[in-house]
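Training component of the fellowship. As part of building independent skills, the fellow (R.M.) carried out the full modelling exercise for a liganded target. The chosen ligand was S-adenosyl-L-homocysteine. The inputs are recorded below so that the supervisory panel can assess the work.
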Amino acid sequence: MVSVVNRVDLNGIGMTSQRTRQRLIQRLVDQGIDNAAVLDVIRTTPRHLFLDEAMAHRAYEDVALPIGFQQTLSQPYVVARMTELLLAAGPLKRVLEIGTGSGYQTAILAQLVDEVYSVERIKQLQQKARQRMRQLKLRNIHMSHADGGMGWEESGPFDGILVTAAPERIPEELLLQLALGGRMVIPVGGDVQDLQVVTRTHEGYETEIVEAVFFVPLRSGKER
Ligand code: SAH
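Fellow's submitted model of the complex:
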């Protein structure tokens, strides 16, 4: 009985069904996402499990949705784009994510890289995300309740860093925790933000500006 309930939960019904998900994938392809592995993981990851019940029916629309605490689950297009950019130079072993939030981006990453280290400053969001990882049996995720602007020094350096809240400028600590050859995908700015890809080279850091985005701000300190 329990397993039947779980299967319905994971596969979804009605507005969370496989057909609805396939429509979302087509939309992402139409918007230029072409990494097959990324598209496949988005197709098979139940986004509705990352939302409260009242929002779950909108899970496969290409929009950002509220997750409480004035935070949002990123729009699928943005998740896909950032993941694709992070993976563009080849497979990654250790990835640092700042802003666990619902854990959706974390779950996507965990299926595409070896180990994910995810930092969240709001304890209650982290706790919910942790339960979802358990439900999805994702075991290569390490979570920390801390100010992600400081990175996660003990676990670094990282060959990928993905930030899902926007600082006015990139924190020095994150740059220092990027391995040589590593890539960071990060929204930067205030009311107007750019998605940037920063690569660490022998000479220093190279920055590429990708497109305009809108994220909640990266805040310092942490909350219960
Ligand atoms: N990737 C998440 C996005 C959540 S919104 C998702 O798809 O659900 C951004 C998240 O970043 C919020 O949960 C917010 O609490 C968190 N955040 C903001 N500043 C932070 C900081 N300095 N350290 C860690 N997390 C931070």
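The panel noted the following from the submitted structure. Residues 135 and 164 are 23 Å apart (CA to CA). The mean pLDDT is 93.
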